TrEMBL record:
Residues binding substrate, per UniProt: 11, 15-20, 32-36, 71, 100
Catalytic site: 71 (proton acceptor)
Name of the protein described by the UniProt record: Diacylglycerol kinase
Keyword Coiled coil (UniProt): no
GO terms under cellular component: plasma membrane
Native organism: Thiothrix caldifontis
Transmembrane segments: 58-77, 98-117
Length: 119
């Protein structure tokens, strides 16, 4: 990307605006992301209540945040692949499948961490 000319506080403010736009776009257009945001809204207070110490709370909350991060990256990959064309191509399918696999692993990570913390 070309240099925007923004520096200091202006660059930070612009970056925050772009990040918020990305969050809003994912929430508006991605059902899975919406579901995971609602899971996060439930999981955060639960983690604070159920975690016995700071490490447990951080692991429980961090695993859900990681899931959201992976979902955002998967959605970004899907958007770029779809932008380049709707025709089927094995590399496009592979990219989307790998993104989906990453989300599945992130979900498994949440299940494992919460399972250990709550057992």
């Amino acid at each position: 990307m070309a240099y925007s000319g923004n520096t200091g506080l202006t660059r930070i403010i612009k970056a925050a605006q772009y990040s918020w736009q990305g969050f809003c776009a994912a929430y508006k257009h991605e059902e899975a992301f919406r579901q995971e945001v609602w899971i996060m809204a439930i999981a955060f207070p639960l983690a604070l209540w159920l975690g016995e110490n700071g490490v447990e709370k951080a692991l429980m909350i961090g695993s859900v945040l990681l899931l959201l991060i992976v979902e955002l990256l998967n959605s970004a990959v899907e958007a770029v692949v779809d932008r380049t064309g709707m025709e089927r191509h094995k590399l496009s399918g592979r990219a989307k499948d790998m993104g989906s696999a990453a989300v599945t692993i992130a979900i498994l990570n949440v299940v494992i961490i919460w399972g250990f913390m709550l057992s």
